[in-house]
Amino acid sequence: MTVYLSTTHTVINTCVPSDRLTVQDKRELLKDKDKFDYYTKKVNEFYTQKRFDNIQVYPHFSKPKGLTIIINEIDWAPNPNKRRNGSEKDAEKLEILFRELGYEIYQQKTLENLTKKEMLDHLEAFATDVRHKDGSSCIVVIMSHGNEDVVCDTKGTRILINHEIKPLFNGKNAKDLVGKPKLFIYQSCRGGLFDSPKLKVPVYRNSRRWD
């Protein structure tokens, strides 16, 4: 996503002298769908014509952009009091976000409360999905309890990120994703250390609550 927008900015800067184009101008251009589509088309043309061979970027012009899988382990069998309340809202907003960015949601919904076997089976099926052949990238989101290099299924079983999840997406197992960006997002604990704040921000109890 960032690569795609950055490349679009490159073309904007190429078409319009940089001394006449401010950051605000770029933001306004990106708000205008017709102009944005025009510059996106130019990016595609310049890329295919190898006008930017000296810039290392991924092509990101497919429609849809690719597939996204979202897994949300809400319930926690080892301790029902540690149910991940509110994570449903996070997943719902992620679905909206990725659809607006041009991605297709795997199975058209968030997958909830999976066992380890179910999670790995879904991830393997996702990694080998034939639709990746036409996509530019993919996104994997796993929301759960966890630890460093570990996420847990709904029953508390540990799943090793680097040894059980990532290998599913290597060149041998996911041939249609070779050479394409693969974004992994883990919403989980990464250990027992805490980051001590350097700046204290006052909490206004009567302030507006944002949904």
Automatic annotation (TrEMBL):
SMART domains: CASc. Residues 64-191 form the Caspase family p20 domain. Pfam families: Peptidase_C14. One of its GO terms (cellular component) is IPAF inflammasome complex. GO terms for biological process: proteolysis. GO terms for molecular function: cysteine-type endopeptidase activity. Belongs to the peptidase C14A family. This is Caspase family p20 domain-containing protein.
